[in-house]
Automatic annotation (TrEMBL):
Subunit-structure text: Interacts with RET in the pituitary gland; this interaction prevents the formation of the AIP-survivin complex.
Originating species: Chaetura pelagica
Statement: the UniProt record of this protein carries the keyword Cytoplasm: yes
Protein name per UniProt: AH receptor-interacting protein
Gene3D superfamilies assigned to the protein according to its UniProt record, in alphabetical order: 3.10.50.40, Tetratricopeptide repeat domain
């Protein structure tokens, strides 16, 4: 039975199939306002269906049949107990993908594991023992996720997540190190030096690794200065 809002749903599904935001082109308002807001949905067949509602028939195609026990539920479909039990497995799968060089896929696994724990954490009182225990399980997963994002050059996401960790755990060396690398990548030189200094203060044994990062940063700065001199050469003498 056709309902007047279906064309908007269909547009969202088509956006998803095309890899776009399902809410692309929509603004935050009620569904009826959405109908009046858009004179066209961008698809002639949906525009026609909106003008002339009619009963709809859906054909469902089976793409594959999975053996019992092989289907993996999405986190949103799990019970609380299933979420807790799934986290170690998802974490392990993420590690295996990362070792295989499949960084984007690994990040997705870490994200799913974090989502499971975050969902459970929302049901606890912030700062309570159970909340803290869940948060301590989230932190290493979030650091793994940040490592993936570093390799994908998504530096500002790394800055946000590492800062959120350090707001709670001021002695987390890995968070300082990853944030320092992200700062260096986006030319926040002073911030990068501060984070690397904190790493050395917390764990002096990491000096060789930190020194390597600082040498890389200095080399990039020299290269950038040389490029800037060429780019702006003679600009003030014209």
């Amino acid at each position: 039975q056709h309902v007047v809002l279906y064309p908007l749903v269909a547009k969202s599904l088509r956006n998803i199939a095309a890899g776009k935001d399902p809410l692309e082109g929509q603004r935050h308002c009620c569904s009826m306002a959405q109908l009046h807001e858009h004179y066209s949905l961008g698809y002639p067949d949906l525009d026609e269906l909106q003008k002339n509602p009619q009963p709809l028939i859906f054909d469902i195609e089976v793409l594959k049949v999975e053996a019992p026990g092989s289907y993996q539920q999405d986190p949103w479909a799990m019970t609380d107990e299933e979420k807790l039990q799934a986290v170690p497995r998802i974490h392990k799968e993420g590690n295996e993908l990362f070792q295989q060089g499949k960084v984007q896929e690994a990040a997705a696994k870490y994200y799913d594991a974090i989502a499971c724990l975050k969902n459970l954490q929302m049901k606890e009182q912030p700062g309570s023992p159970d909340w803290i225990e869940l948060d301590q399980k989230i932190t290493p997963l979030l650091l793994n996720y940040c490592q993936c994002k570093l390799q994908c050059e998504e530096y500002y996401e790394v800055l946000d997540h590492c800062s959120s960790i350090l707001n709670k755990y001021e002695d987390n060396v890995k968070a300082y190190f990853k944030r320092g690398k992200a700062h260096a990548a986006v030319w926040n030189v002073a911030e990068a030096h501060a984070d690397f200094a904190k790493v050395l203060a917390l764990d002096p044994s990491l000096r060789p690794v930190v020194s390597k990062e600082l040498r890389s940063l200095e080399a990039r700065l020299r290269e950038k200065d040389a490029e800037d001199k060429i780019r702006f050469k003679g600009i003030f003498s014209q």
